[in-house]
């Protein structure tokens, strides 16, 4: 299992709509509305890079209110 954080910029005024759309997606485990350069940050759980690709292509890119995303794949500091 992999974990990633997706930082999302939304078209102005569409934050609540994007939140609602993301809230129904099983891979999305947490959603935060944030202030600053990004509007929303989500934590997702996926099985592998292939599933991450599918998540981006088949889910995020189909939400027209999303202008841009940046994905951070989580790593552990454990030795």
UniProtKB/TrEMBL annotation:
<feature type="domain" description="Transcription regulator AsnC/Lrp ligand binding">
    <location>
        <begin position="6"/>
        <end position="74"/>
    </location>
</feature>
<dbReference type="InterPro" id="IPR011008">
    <property type="entry name" value="Dimeric_a/b-barrel"/>
</dbReference>
<dbReference type="Pfam" id="PF01037">
    <property type="entry name" value="AsnC_trans_reg"/>
</dbReference>
<dbReference type="InterPro" id="IPR050684">
    <property type="entry name" value="HTH-Siroheme_Decarb"/>
</dbReference>
<dbReference type="InterPro" id="IPR019887">
    <property type="entry name" value="Tscrpt_reg_AsnC/Lrp_C"/>
</dbReference>
<protein>
    <submittedName>
        <fullName>AsnC family transcriptional regulator</fullName>
    </submittedName>
</protein>
């Amino acid at each position: 299992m992999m974990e990633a954080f997706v930082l999302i910029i939304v078209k102005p005024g569409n934050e609540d709509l994007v939140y609602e759309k993301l809230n129904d997606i099983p891979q999305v485990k947490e959603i935060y509305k944030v202030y600053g350069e990004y509007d929303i940050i989500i934590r997702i759980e996926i099985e592998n890079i292939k599933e991450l690709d599918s998540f981006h292509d088949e889910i995020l890119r189909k939400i027209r209110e999303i202008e841009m995303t940046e994905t951070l794949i989580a790593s552990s500091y454990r030795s």
